[in-house]
Design brief:
Elements: H1 2-25, H2 28-31, E1 44-52, H3 56-71, E2 76-88, E3 91-100, H4 103-110, H5 113-121, E4 128-134, H6 139-142, E5 149-150, H7 157-182, H8 190-216, H9 230-254
């Protein structure tokens, strides 16, 4: 019974994380490529510009043109511009955050020819720029890329989900066996026991297991904007699925 409760608790935690993922992607329909209305959080892009002090007014004018261009794009929600920061002698760092309804709409705007032309026109105003887009909510685990422009920091959503389940499943099972045999939390009230279980699971998953999963599957968990060879996609998927199947078999045998 204790094992069953521990497994149920951990899977409840997993469902909550996946629900957050679905919300960020706009629901299950968005994961399958169908457009649906979505609640916050929305896919966003954070853009950083380094602008000489003497060109601040020119940058403001150019930036208004860029925002107006984005406003005409499909799925545009809003643009946030923040007060500039003095980062080096004679220069300011400006930040803009653009929000769209769906990840594919954000990607379409980033890759649009109109945006590219306006960006080239602004090269004489700002010294440099870079941006990062956040589309799935899981980029913190899967992103180790840097550069001037990245249209997506993480791998496709279905790979992220498989990787999360691959790392979380054995933690849930092993933790359940250990807690059952040690009799921990048996005298605790259900709410406190659930909180303690979730804290243990999340710490192990985030600090120990997930970094190793990402490192082991790094050849497969490539950013979505980088196309991998078909062979790599097939091998990575098979390895992940077989690893899950092997763990299911193992835990069934020792149960």
């Amino acid at each position: 019974m204790a094992l069953q409760e521990s497994v149920t608790t951990a899977f409840t935690h997993l469902r909550a994380k996946l629900s957050q993922r679905l919300a960020a992607a706009g629901g299950l329909g968005a994961l399958l490529g169908r457009q649906e209305d979505a609640d916050l959080p929305f896919p966003s892009v954070v853009i950083e510009y380094i602008v000489p002090n003497g060109k601040s007014w020119a940058f403001r004018s150019w930036h208004r043109r860029m925002v107006k261009l984005a406003q005409r794009a499909e799925g545009f929600l809003r643009a946030d511009r923040y007060r500039p920061l003095a980062v080096q002698e004679g220069c300011l760092k400006w930040y803009t955050v653009l929000h769209f309804e769906q990840p594919h709409q954000l990607e379409q705007w980033i890759n649009s020819s109109d945006r590219d032309a306006l960006l080239k026109a602004g090269r004489d105003i700002f010294k440099s720029y870079k941006f990062k887009s956040f589309e799935t909510g899981m980029e913190g685990w899967f992103s180790n890329e840097s550069g001037e422009e990245l249209t997506g920091l993480g791998p496709p959503a279905w790979k992220e989900i498989l990787a999360v389940v691959l790392g979380l499943y054995p933690i849930i099972m092993v933790q359940g066996f250990i807690l059952e045999r040690l009799g921990l939390f048996e005298d605790w009230d259900p709410a406190s026991a659930m909180l303690a279980n979730n804290l243990i699971t999340t710490c192990i998953f985030t600090l120990i297991v997930m970094p190793r999963i990402v490192r082991w599957l790094n050849f497969w968990l490539r950013p979505a904007h980088r196309r991998s060879p078909v062979q790599t996609e097939v091998v990575g998927t098979i390895v992940t699925v077989l690893a899950m199947a092997a763990m299911v078999y193992f835990f069934n045998e020792i149960a």
